What we know:
It contains one helix and ten strands, in the order E-E-E-H-E-E-E-E-E-E-E. By secondary structure, it is mostly beta strands. It has one domain: Metal Binding Protein, Guanine Nucleotide Exchange Factor, Chain A. The strands form two sheets. A seven-stranded mixed beta sheet has the order 6-7-8-9-4-3-10. A three-stranded antiparallel beta sheet has the order 1-2-5, with no helix packed on it. Strand 8 (82-86) and strand 9 form a beta hairpin. The mean pLDDT is 95. It binds zinc ion (2 copies). Residues 29, 31, 33-34, 43, 114 line the site of one zinc ion (ZN).
Amino acid sequence: MSSPTLTGGCGCGAVRFAIDAPLVAAAYCHCTRCQHRTGTAAQASGRLAPGSLRLLSGAEDVGRWDAGSGLVKDFCRRCGSAVFAEDRDSGEILVVRLGAIDGDPGVRPQARQFVADAAAWEPIPDDGLPRHDGRLPA
Ligand SMILES: [Zn+2]
Ligand SMILES: [Zn+2]
């Protein structure tokens, strides 16, 4: 592999990663889990090409929140930053948080999911993106 396409990490720098292929897609999630774990109205995430994210440091600092369904949400145990999410069975990292990426992630969110659960205190932007009440169709 040549130099990575993208790099990123958590706020304190303990967790660092490289991504060796362009992100496949991106979307905003308005679900209540994302509201709680980020403290914001929505989380923007990018879908990884299979196997494209490599941890460079901080494996021992990655905390995991398994809410019982959906992806296991990974965060830095030192600073609390949301970094990525993994399949609960295989442990494969499938999704990266766009805010964890250094610079331009190269993709733009193309849809909004779980808008039925959207925060009361912030209107969903009138940006023309398709809105889904629940999870994005696969
Ligand atoms: Zn950190
Ligand atoms: Zn969510």
